[in-house]
Amino acid sequence: MKRRHLILIIIVAGFVIASGVVLSQNLTPYVSFAEAKEKKGSVQVHGALEGDVQTLSGGQGIMFELKDDDGTVAEVVYKGLKPDNMDQSDGVVVIGKFDDDVFQANKILVKCPSKYESVPGGESL
User: Fold this and answer.
1) Buried b / exposed e across 61-78, counting CB within 10 Å, b at 16+?
2) pTM for the full model?
């Protein structure tokens, strides 16, 4: 094998390894509220809305309760606009961190209901 081919293979392998390390560091798995309280940085929590979404005084954001996949309910505050389809969603993902006993979300992702689920009467959409 020529020396140039060997150098090229080493460079490509180094790029693939570096890309894998960077990608794995940037992936944030879903955690429960219990785990989120222990972590210092930003985390993602998946859950279902509990009750109604309330607008904060002065329209400075929204507040709601979210039940995570483990069944723990926590108050979530988001300093932004309520997503349009939040009330009809199958699930919500909040990204942020705990401040005392309130989860301060800096981003909300709304999981849309599946358009392939059957509707009452046995018909599919």
Assistant:
1) bbebbbbbeeeeebebbb
2) 0.68
* 24, HSE (Cβ side, Cα atoms, 13 Å): 6
CA dihedral angle for residue 71, residue 75, residue 77, residue 81, rounded to 10 degrees: 60
Half-sphere exposure of 100 (CA within 13 A, CB side): 3
Using CB atoms within 10 A of its CB, is residue 33 exposed (0-12), middle (13-18) or buried (19+)? Answer: buried
57: amino acid identity, one letter: S
pLDDT in tens, 82-97: 988 888 887 899 999 9
Q: How far apart are CA 43 and CA 28, in angstroms?
A: 7
Q: Classify residue 35 as left (phi > 0), alpha (psi -120 to 50) or beta.
A: alpha
